[in-house]
Amino acid sequence: MSYTRREFLETTTAVGLFELSAITMALAQPAMAASGNVFSGVVPHATQYGPFLATVVKGRLQKVTPTAADGRPTEMLTEGVLGRTYDKTRIN
Predict the structure, then answer these.
(1) How distant, in Å, are the alpha carbons of 24, 27, 74, 76, 77 from that of 80?
(2) pLDDT tens string 24-59
(3) Is the pTM of this model over 0.85?
(4) 8 Å CB contact between 53 and 42
(5) Contact 29, 59 (CB under 8 A)
(6) Which of 33, 48, 76, 91 to pair with 16, CA 20 to 30 A apart?
(7) How far is CA 2 from the centre of its chain?
């Protein structure tokens, strides 16, 4: 018997074999906020400026920390990502 990827994920998620990862939780923020749940934690992520750990408190990005994999983090990573995330000029 063979399963498609979709069938496998639907079945295993339905029976609770997998917990939601931090990334999944962060991506689900709009739905979670609407239901009253707000994520806090550290989420690994990356941009064109490099990989980083995002510290999220009550659904808002608070801190960007470069990972050890990024030998030369730039200001655009360490300060730019945080500064631009909630800037009034950002198009959502």
Answers:
(1) 24, 21, 9, 4, 5
(2) 656 655 555 556 667 788 888 888 899 999 998 888
(3) no
(4) yes
(5) yes
(6) 33
(7) 32
* Length of the chain, in residues: 92
Query: For residues 26 and 39, what is the distance between their CA atoms, to the nearest angstrom?
Result: 7
Torsion of CA 66, 70, 73, 79, to 10 degrees: -30
Give the single-character DSSP code of 77.
Answer: I
Q: Which residue has tokens 């945080």?
A: 82
Residue 48 DSSP one-character state: T
Query: Does position 62 have pLDDT exceeding 90, yes or no?
Result: yes
In this structure, which amino acid lies at residue 73?
P
Residue 44 in contact with residue 31, Cβ under 8 Å?
no
